[in-house]
């Protein structure tokens, strides 16, 4: 059974078509990524899937339950972390989590045990009795996630869950996503972090201007643009872009303390770089070749947005 089946979703706001004939199928047990530039229709689609917005046309089923016809049953199968979080600032961390458990009809003993377990997993045991308004953004997001997963939802939906988080909070969020998936939850993840999607997701849909422009595994999407291979290189001293000008090299971009050299034929490019290094008396600090990245595929699929 599909965890999520959205068919031909359409939503307009005045003269603007935010989502135009979008269909998504998410297999049970997977981590599914939903990517797109700002304004592409990601959040509007998520709001229709979760029943917050009613589509102008189309339908959504969560584990076979029609969201529009039986919204309560469908929503009981979900844990949702919207883009702006869901915490109550005037409650403590543990009160937030317990309150959500109560909304889902959990037994008091079970929800108290589960709340302690999740708060500890997210590194907030020492702050569990503190008012949430005193928390950082990262800590508030961790409480949002704790509240969303207290009832062990079959479907976990996260809209940009790591945006603006510090490294520690981001790692905890990602580890929690993986753990929930390993425990049986299907995950629908929207993110701007391309490498995060590459590391987490088994399948990805890319939306642009309200339409799905590609769906597939990260590796399949990368291979769509297999001419975009690059060589990442650094020398023992600073060089300018002119030394990379040669037949077979499409472009060179600074990348931190390195350069990325894009080429249709890495063999020709590497031989040129060796020649340049000998001529300019440069020493290689590092050099590696890479296949196309998911970021390259994303940019190609959404350029002009």
Automatic annotation (TrEMBL):
The keyword Transport belongs to this UniProt entry's keyword annotation: yes
Alphabetized GO MF terms: ATP binding; ATP hydrolysis activity
Please indicate if the UniProt record lists Zinc as a keyword: no
Q: What SMART domains has UniProt attached to this entry?
A: AAA (SM00382)
Q: Which PROSITE patterns match?
A: ABC_TRANSPORTER_1 (PS00211), ABC_TRANSPORTER_2 (PS50893)
Enumerate the PANTHER family for this protein.
ABC TRANSPORTER ATP-BINDING PROTEIN (PTHR42711), ABC TRANSPORTER ATP-BINDING PROTEIN NATA (PTHR42711:SF5)
Q: What is the name listed in the Swiss-Prot or TrEMBL entry for this protein?
A: Daunorubicin resistance ABC transporter ATPase subunit
């Amino acid at each position: 059974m599909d965890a999520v089946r959205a068919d031909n979703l359409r939503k307009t706001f005045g003269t603007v078509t935010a989502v135009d004939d979008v269909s998504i199928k998410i297999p049970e047990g997977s981590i599914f990524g939903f990517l797109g530039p700002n304004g592409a229709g990601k959040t509007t689609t998520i709001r229709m899937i979760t029943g917050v917005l009613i589509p102008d046309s189309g339908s959504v089923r969560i584990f076979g339950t029609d969201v529009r016809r039986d919204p309560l049953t469908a929503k009981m199968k979900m844990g949702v972390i919207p883009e702006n979080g869901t915490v109550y600032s005037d409650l403590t961390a543990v009160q937030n989590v317990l309150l959500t458990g109560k909304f889902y009809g959990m037994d008091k003993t079970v929800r108290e045990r589960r709340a302690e377990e999740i708060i500890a997993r997210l590194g907030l045991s020492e702050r569990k009795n503190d008012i949430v308004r005193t928390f950082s953004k990262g800590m508030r997001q961790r409480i949002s996630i704790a509240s969303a997963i207290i009832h062990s939802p079959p479907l976990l939906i996260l809209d940009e869950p790591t945006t603006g988080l510090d490294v520690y909070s981001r790692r905890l969020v990602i580890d929690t996503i993986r753990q929930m998936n390993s425990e049986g939850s299907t995950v629908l993840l929207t993110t701007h972090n391309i490498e995060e999607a590459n590391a987490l997701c088994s399948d990805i849909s890319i939306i642009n201007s309200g339409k799905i422009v590609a769906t597939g595994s990260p590796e399949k999407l990368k291979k769509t643009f297999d001419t975009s291979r690059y060589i990442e290189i650094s020398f023992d001293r600073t060089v300018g872009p002119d030394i990379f000008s040669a037949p077979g090299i499409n472009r060179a971009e600074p990348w931190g303390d390195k350069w990325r050299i894009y080429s249709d034929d890495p063999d020709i490019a590497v031989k040129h770089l060796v020649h340049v290094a000998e001529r300019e008396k440069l020493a290689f600090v590092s050099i590696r070749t890479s296949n196309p990245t998911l970021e390259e595929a994303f940019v190609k699929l959404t350029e002009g947005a």
